[in-house]
Amino acid sequence: xxxxxxxxxxxxxxxxxxxxxxxxxxxxxxxxxxxxxxxxxxxxxxxxxxxxxxxxxxxxxxxxxxxxxxxxxxxxxxxxxxxxxxxxxxxxxxxxxxxxxxxxxxxxxxxxxxxxxxxxxxxxxxxxxxxxxxxxxxxxxxxxxxxxxxxxxxxxxxxxxxxxxxxxxxxxxxxxxxxxxxxxxxxxxxxxxxxxxxxxxxxxxxxxxxx
Length: 211
Fold this sequence. Notes:
The chain has one domain: Vaccinia Virus protein VP39 (Rossmann fold), CATH 3.40.50.150. It is built from eight helices and seven strands, in the order H-H-H-E-H-E-H-E-H-E-H-E-H-E-E. It has helices at about 1-15, 20-35, 40-55, 70-75, 95-105, 120, 140-150, 175-190, and strands at about 60-65, 85-90, 110-115, 130-135, 150-160, 195-200, 205-210. The chain has a seven-stranded mixed beta sheet, with helices on both faces. Strand 4 (about 130-135), helix 7 and strand 5 (about 150-160) form a beta-alpha-beta unit. The longest helix is centred in the first third of the chain and has 15 residues, at about 40-55.
């Protein structure tokens, strides 16, 4: 099964656009310097995020969970002219390196990087969002969705990562963290404010479009 996944992933990466030089560098340095490099979105998911952002062309976007900035740069590729992407992370140890990546990108003036608790930072950001990517503390995913849904424009998109949770959502006796993911998915599936589907990309990406 693992070999089949690796073959599929390699084929998906082969058939999509290449990473640019900066993204390759972020990818490489994340695997060299981080203890949990698998948290990086990676080549194929990065291209998915870029494509979705380009379809939405957000003027105001939000990312919760910056990590090393790979997904941030991919999302910024789709920003409308003059658009802004706010990204929030709580880990200040990575701040200097990640800010450096943003400054070397083509979107340096459009990415606003916040360090702090997302629940405290979000209220300081004004405006209605066109695109939101939630990829942080899984226990708070439903909280973020409920707090932000009224701040998303009609037709706006919310993306939530890791909703298949390494396949654990199918366990007969899920642990407490898996149960939270299951409850999130169940709640979103019955929410009539959004159109929704899960893309089985990497660890599962929930795509929700506000009606």
